[in-house]
Write a structure and sequence with these properties.
It is built from 14 helices and 14 strands. It is of the alpha/beta class. It has a 7-stranded mixed sheet with strand order 5-13-10-9-6-7-8, sandwiched between helices. A 3-stranded antiparallel sheet has the order 2-3-4, with helices on both faces. Helix 5 crosses helix 6 and helix 9 packs across helix 14. The chain is globular and about 65 Å long.
Length: 369
């Protein structure tokens, strides 16, 4: 089995970002470990037209290429509607046949209406994180910071993991109805990204406790659609903020309409950004869901930089835009996946620290009065 590789120039640029994170956080950050760690832990094969993880496919049409991800049961169930069929036997055969005639732009439009993760090759452009001033500034050491991580999967949790390495107290928030999807996947990967975090079980239908936790936080990480929290009164402009709070919002394709509601995963976001192996005429997936770890790394740099400036900021970062920043680099000198990373400890059971977290939040809010 051929191992996952990362183009040498991509890894070198990621190492530059990792060095900045290391300088700001005072910890060692190994870019090769971040970009290839999952592949090494899980023994994933090299990607081609099918992603290393197997859930994304590169599909050609008369108007170019796109990447579609079917990682959730609901995604597979939506394929019949996507290709306008009553029944299908093989979802990937059905999509491949349909897109060859209808085109990738039509597929993307229909997929996005159905909430499916899709990226049209090269549709995104590079963009630095967008920072908006939304509160008072204040300075404080990261080791005293409380980070509330509402994100799931890889990019946001990786950002939280890097802040935890630097000494912050990181609370991973999930709900019983929608826990982090990686909890049901390989244990080694979930532990690698989420070990060392406190686990908090939240009820989003009764958000008072979560509102208090967000009000007590120094950093908030979220990766939901921009209106998802706002509909519950939990948006960055709806929850009282501690001075210096940094609110990080990770999206697939940016926070502005219409792309704010587009769902994305690491492989399709990378394709949207133009970050592929091969050529535009004969593309292959690059590395393993590469937009995820790159975004997690860039997000950590953005959070740490915002805190250095005193915070009081909303930081928007797009996975496709991050990937696009690497798209024009040379694709030679591939670097083979590193050895499996060390796992510091098992991730906590869901809701294991609710009482502890509630006490921390209450104490911080009382101290602020």
């Amino acid at each position: 089995m051929t191992s996952v590789t990362v183009p040498g120039a991509v890894l070198e640029q990621a190492r530059d970002v990792a060095r900045e994170v290391a300088d700001l956080a005072g910890v060692v950050v190994d870019a090769a470990e971040l970009l290839t760690g999952r592949a090494a832990l899980l023994g994933l094969p090299a990607a081609g037209l099918v992603s290393a993880g197997g859930a994304s496919h590169l599909l050609p049409g008369p108007d170019g290429w796109c990447a579609l991800t079917l990682s959730r049961p609901d995604d597979v169930a939506a394929v019949a509607a996507l290709v306008e069929a009553d029944q299908i036997e093989d979802p990937w055969d059905a999509v491949a046949h349909w897109v060859r005639h209808a085109g990738v732009l039509e597929l993307a439009q229909r997929a996005r209406l159905l909430g499916l993760p899709v990226g049209v090759y090269g549709e995104a452009r590079p963009q630095e994180p967008v920072v908006t001033r939304i509160g008072e500034r204040a300075h404080g050491p990261l080791r005293d910071a409380l980070v509330v991580d509402l994100s799931s999967m890889w990019a946001g949790p990786l950002c939280g993991a890097l802040l935890a390495r630097a000494g912050a107290t990181v609370v991973k928030v999930e709900s019983a109805a929608r826990p982090d999807g990686t909890r049901a996947g390989p244990v080694a990967f979930f532990d690698w990204i989420n070990g060392g975090k406190l686990s908090y079980l939240a009820d989003f239908t009764r958000p008072d406790a979560l509102r208090a936790l967000l009000a007590a936080a120094d950093v908030v990480i979220e990766s939901s659609r921009p209106d998802g929290l706002r509909r519950r009164g939990l948006g960055p402009d709806q929850v009282p903020a501690r001075p210096g709070r940094v609110w990080l919002r990770i999206t697939g394709h940016g926070a502005e309409a219409p792309s704010a509601d587009w769902v994305a995963f690491g492989d399709d976001a990378a394709v949207a950004g133009g970050l592929i192996d091969g050529s535009a005429a004969a593309p292959r997936f690059c590395a393993d869901a590469v937009a995820d770890p790159l975004t997690g790394l860039h997000a950590a740099r953005a959070v740490l930089s915002a805190r250095q400036r005193g915070g009081g900021a909303l930081v928007d970062i797009s996975m496709a835009a991050v990937a696009s920043g690497y798209a024009d680099l040379p694709r030679g000198n591939p670097v083979v996946a590193a050895d499996p990373p060390e796992i510091a400890g098992a991730a906590a059971e869901l809701g294991a620290h609710n009482d502890v977290v509630d006490r921390i939040a209450a104490q911080r809010l009382a101290d602020a009065c």
